[in-house]
Amino acid sequence: MARTLLRIPATAARGEVVEIRTLIQHPMETGYRPGADGTVQPRDIIRRFTCHYNNRLVFEAALHPAIAANPFLSFTITAAESGILVFTWEGDNGFAQTETRALEVV
Fold this sequence. Notes:
Pfam families: SoxZ. Residues 9-100 form the Sulphur oxidation protein SoxZ domain. This is Thiosulfate oxidation carrier complex protein SoxZ. By secondary structure, the protein is an all-beta fold. The protein is built from no helices and 8 strands. A 5-stranded mixed sheet has the order 2-8-7-4-5, with no helix packed on it. Strands 1-3-6 form a 3-stranded antiparallel sheet, with no helix packed on it. The chain is elongated, with a radius of gyration of 16 Å. The chain has one domain (4-29, 43-105): Immunoglobulins (Immunoglobulin-like, Sandwich), CATH 2.60.40. A hairpin with a 2-residue loop joins strand 4 (46-53) and strand 5 (56-62). The mean pLDDT is 94.
C-alpha cells in the first residue's frame, strides 16, 4: 500500500470553494530508464486519479509516464453538503488505492 497525504479542511461553509491537495508516494517508472544493471526497468505508473464527492465524480486526471514520482494534485470543489470524499488512484500492474475523508458543511 502506498503512502498518501491528503489536505482537506474538516469543515467548510455551504457554497465555499475548498482546495484539496493530494500526494501519493509512488516511483512512477516510465519503462524507458535503464537500471543499475543496464536493463530497462518495467513501466510502473499511476494512470488515473478520481475524486468522488457523495458518489458524484468531481475531479478526474489521466497521468502519463512524464509525470514525476510521488504525483501531487491540487484542485477545488464547491462545498454543497456534508459528505464523503473518495479518492482513487489506479495504475499499472493492478495497482489501486482508495482513501476516504469526511467533509462537514456548516
